[in-house]
Design brief:
The chain is an alpha/beta fold. The protein has seven helices and 14 strands. Pfam families: PNP_UDP_1.
Length: about 290
Amino acid sequence: MIQASELILNPDGSVYHLNLRPEHIAHDIIFVGDQNRVEKITQFFDSIEYSTQKREFKTQTGIYKGKRITVMSTGIGPDNIDIVLNELDALVNIDLKTRRPKKELTSLNIIRIGTSGSLQADIPVDSFVMSKFGLGLDNMLRSYLIDKVSHVAIEDAFIMHTNWDIRKGKPYAITCSEKLEKIIESDRIFKGITATAGGFYGPQGRILRLNIQDEELNNKMDNFDFNGERITNLEMETAAIYGLSALLGHNALSLNAIIANRASGTFSEDPYKAVDELIAYTLNKLAGS
């Protein structure tokens, strides 16, 4: 039995941080970072059956073209993803009354919709990027036993190419769900490796008043190539989502609207339009329309 200190429940039986009970979520779930983006997606729903928010975790579940979908904000960073994925999994794979794992696994379909900056000059602003791999630079997933789901060859190639300082922890590489990749892919979408940083400033090469460990890391990442797979973009959630989903038996895919190109120094003239187009595209793919 899982102890109360390990799986914390609220007085109403909901999981502690997400404030959700099993009946509140669909098995198709869209992640966004910003809580204000939840309703940018659910405004297209035919109906909304449930809505709640605790801290930065806002959730709405409803129907879109006959498909039951949950939209949830995760906040920023791999540490939040650790909370969200573990509590979502508990909702479907642990009996919250007996506190025991269920015998039959329930797999969720999780798609992240986010915004990001491209690291490659040929991936323009307003385009879509699908993360074929998540490359975690954050070290969060190393708290788990990940050898069965990680791609050691990519990790080792990246460490060698960048002369990575292992004192920052060993990067990890996880692939996306092939099932969701087939559902979502199209000729419009670029694919590649999405690097996931554990912070926004120093971990992504930004310098304000503090010097950073490797000022050339972004340039090294720009020209990293593993069997034709390049690092397309840099953000703060994808690798953690892929890693925990793979370990827990869920399907995960990350999509980003590219609103900036750090290689060319350009920024989208209408970033909201790019995000809205990605939302509509993803919803219709999920609904099979």
